[in-house]
């Protein structure tokens, strides 16, 4: 945090001029501080406290120059922030925590990877298991198609007692086959959900 000004050339000149006047009623303590400030090598630094005291003096004495005009060429003096050295015990502990977190993240990512399954890929047991699943899918699709076609055929033949034209018989058969197909799909989806373990 800033607590002092770095004085510009204009301020130094005005302060020198003020201190050279012997008849000025400048307080002794302020005069000593200003002389000590001007005696230091560049950059000249003036504390806020001394600047406020000088401003009050200038206002009381009615001098023709103002403090903010003098500070125009200067800047704030910011102390250099010295960062303390890091504690080696703390640094070592942080490194251990980073390694532990990285290992946990790796374990979380690879928890569903089974290396024995990877090594066993391509065996006859895997081929047989895949063939059984393909066989089950083909049987299910064939069963679905046979059911829908049978429902269409039964509805078409059975509707001859209700309708004499072919158009209404086909529409009735399509509606019946659609209803049976939707019911079959519903049962199929529920069965697959049960096999996958979903409620």
UniProtKB/TrEMBL annotation:
<keyword id="KW-0472">Membrane</keyword>
<feature type="transmembrane region" description="Helical">
    <location>
        <begin position="170"/>
        <end position="189"/>
    </location>
</feature>
<keyword id="KW-0256">Endoplasmic reticulum</keyword>
<dbReference type="GO" id="GO:0070072">
    <property type="term" value="P:vacuolar proton-transporting V-type ATPase complex assembly"/>
</dbReference>
<dbReference type="Pfam" id="PF11712">
    <property type="entry name" value="Vma12"/>
</dbReference>
<protein>
    <submittedName>
        <fullName>Transmembrane protein 199</fullName>
    </submittedName>
</protein>
<keyword id="KW-0812">Transmembrane</keyword>
<keyword id="KW-1133">Transmembrane helix</keyword>
<feature type="transmembrane region" description="Helical">
    <location>
        <begin position="136"/>
        <end position="158"/>
    </location>
</feature>
<dbReference type="InterPro" id="IPR021013">
    <property type="entry name" value="ATPase_Vma12"/>
</dbReference>
<dbReference type="GO" id="GO:0005789">
    <property type="term" value="C:endoplasmic reticulum membrane"/>
</dbReference>
């Amino acid at each position: 945090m800033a607590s002092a000004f770095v004085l510009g050339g204009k301020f130094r000149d005005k302060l020198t001029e003020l201190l050279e006047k012997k008849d000025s009623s400048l307080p002794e303590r302020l005069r000593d501080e200003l002389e000590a400030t001007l005696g230091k090598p560049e950059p000249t630094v003036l504390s806020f406290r001394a600047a406020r005291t000088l401003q009050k003096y200038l206002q009381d004495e009615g001098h023709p120059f103002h403090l903010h005009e003098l500070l125009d060429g200067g800047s704030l003096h910011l102390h250099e922030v010295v960062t303390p050295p890091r504690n080696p015990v703390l640094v070592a502990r942080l490194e251990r925590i980073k390694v532990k977190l990285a290992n946990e993240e790796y374990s979380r990512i690879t928890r569903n990877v089974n290396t024995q399954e990877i090594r066993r890929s391509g065996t006859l047991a895997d081929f047989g298991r895949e063939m059984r699943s393909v066989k089950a899918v083909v049987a299910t699709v064939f069963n679905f198609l046979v059911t829908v076609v049978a429902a269409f055929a039964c509805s078409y033949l059975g509707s001859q007692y209700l309708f004499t034209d072919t158009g209404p018989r086909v529409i009735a058969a399509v509606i019946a086959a659609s209803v049976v197909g939707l019911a079959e799909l519903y049962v199929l989806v529920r069965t697959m959900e049960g096999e996958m373990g979903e409620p």
